[in-house]
Design a protein that fits this description.
Elements: E1 2-3, E2 33-34, E3 38-46, E4 51-52, E5 57-63, E6 69-78, E7 84-89, E8 101-107, E9 114-119, E10 127-129, E11 131-133
Length: about 140
């Protein structure tokens, strides 16, 4: 499953924002894993030209298998020079009235911060989720 930057070559549409929810806590530790069984990877790209955003910051948080948010399921990664990020986590638990999901917050200098969510359809063994950020200021013409 791939989400995010599925556009014509050289053209990126910014990733749609989604609710931060009440469980975001700043300062998640830098780590490559918040569990096992679900590898998540993607790229952080800048609109409108799809250029990779090196050293972008990607935070995530999610419910544990019991459907409760905890510090063990919060993390941060710094994107590579090519804008790539990756981590491994547990399949998020379900809680009432919500599908399984992972919250993301991405930021990079010169771009507006993005908060969004990745909704899982079920049965995923890995996930690719690209994040496309909008410029902080409109591009000059």
């Amino acid at each position: 499953m791939s989400e995010g930057a599925e556009n014509a070559p050289g053209e990126c549409v910014p990733t749609a924002g989604d609710a931060e929810g009440p469980f975001y806590k700043p300062g998640a530790p830098e780590r490559a894993s918040t569990g096992s069984g679900l590898p998540v990877r993607g790229r952080v790209l800048g609109a409108p030209d799809c250029r990779p955003l090196p050293r972008a910051r990607v935070e995530w948080w999610q419910a544990n298998s019991a459907g409760e948010y905890d510090d063990a399921h919060r993390g941060t990664r710094t994107a590579s020079a090519g804008g790539e990020y990756a981590f491994t986590t547990d399949l998020p638990g379900k809680y009432p009235f919500r599908p399984r999901h992972i919250h993301f917050k991405a930021s990079a200098p010169g771009f507006a911060p993005l908060t969004t969510q990745l909704y899982l359809r079920g049965g995923e063994t890995s996930v690719t989720f690209d994040l496309v950020l909008s410029p902080s200021k409109p591009p000059s013409r």
